[in-house]
Structure formats: structure tokens, C-alpha cells
Amino acid sequence: MKLPSWVVAALALACAAPPAPRVPSVRLESSGGAPEDFPANLASAPWTVLVFYSGDCPCFKAHEARLRSLHDRYTPRGVRFLLVDSESGASLAPAAGSSRDPALPMPLVTDPDAVLASGLGAEYATYSVLLDPNGEVRYRGGLDSDKSHLREDATFYLRDALDDVLAGRNPRRTEAKALGCPLQTR
Predict the structure, then answer these.
(1) pLDDT (tens digit per residue) in 109-149
(2) Most exposed of 32, 59, 111, 185 (fewest Cβ within 10 Å)?
(3) Cβ neighbour number for residue 113 with a 10 Å cutoff
(4) d(CA 122, CA 120)
């Protein structure tokens, strides 16, 4: 039996599309005091933003003020922010000779085996993931279109996605390139 060409094309597209990333089931240490149990902890907020962190990344450091601004703007609207350190040797204790203590008002979660990074496709510092309470990825990619030299005319990917979901719309962009230092997960 020969299938119609449109059926063959639809099957090919379905098979070619990469599977959506999933929040893996993992318990991680947090500077917030209590461990973070993924994905169960996502039910505590309407929206959760994970931002992958590297203490030695100049791109991340350049974005700290923008990330603080996002936190201040969206936390009162029910968005929960977590920094995730998935680099090898990730620990809540400061590393000697490193600037691993972010001056940001959000908890730092350590992911020393890179379980979250692998499950969500994070390869760079500043990679951000917007999750709904069910663990569905609504946006993933960079905070914005800048790397380390910030410009006023940047495209604010994460801010746009947050504005969209808070207005009850699907994000206008579900993925964008993350421009940061490669995470040192091994």
C-alpha cells in the first residue's frame, strides 16, 4: 500500500523534529536553604526561570545588571528565578581564586553532575529556560542578543518571552542562541 505524499512528508517532519527537552528528576543543593527537587519544585510558582551560571564568565558578569532587573521586574508577578551552576566541581562553598559568588538576589542551585544542563540542553553561561509549573519548556536560549558588550538596541529574548506568557500568549520566540562562555561540565 502506497501512502499519499503528504502523509510521508508529515511522518518525515515528525521524525526529524528533535524531542522537546525535559526537566530531569533530580534533587540539588540550593543556597536558598532547602534542596530543590526537580520537577516537583516547579509547582511552587506560575513560572520558573533557570539561568545557567559560570562564575568566571565575562559574558555572565556583563549580564548581571540585566538579570537583576529581570528579577526585580518579574518576581512580584509570580516568576521564580534560580541560578544553576552545572560546572564540574559546582559547590555552594566559594572556590578558592574564583568569583563564584554572584551578587544576584536569587538562589544558586548546584548541579555538579550537569543533570539539569544535559536534560535542558544548556551548553553556555547565560542560557536561560522558562518553565511552566508542569515542567514544560516555554522558552530556552540567551537572555538577549548581546554577548559581553551590551547595547541598548539588543533583542531581549527572555524578557519578551516573560511578557508574552504573563499576558496569556505563547512566546513569540521559543528558542534563541545563547551567547556566553561554554559551561565546563567535565
Answers:
(1) 999 899 999 999 999 999 999 999 999 999 999 988 777 77
(2) 32
(3) 14
(4) 6
Using the predicted structure, report yes or no on whether residue 102 has a pLDDT greater than 80.
Answer: no
Domains of the chain as residue ranges with CATH? 21-166 (3.40.30.10)
pLDDT band at 74 (very low <50, low <70, confident <90, very high): very high
Q: How many CB atoms lie within 10 A of CB 13?
A: 9
For the chain, report the end-to-end CA distance as a whole number of angstroms: 50
Alpha-carbon span 91 to 84, nearest angstrom: 11
- Beta-carbon contacts of residue 90 (< 8 Å; ≥ 6 apart): 110, 111, 112
Phi/psi of residue 153, each to 5°?
Answer: -95, 20
DSSP string, 149-183: S--TT---HHHHHHHHHHTTS--S-SB----SPBP
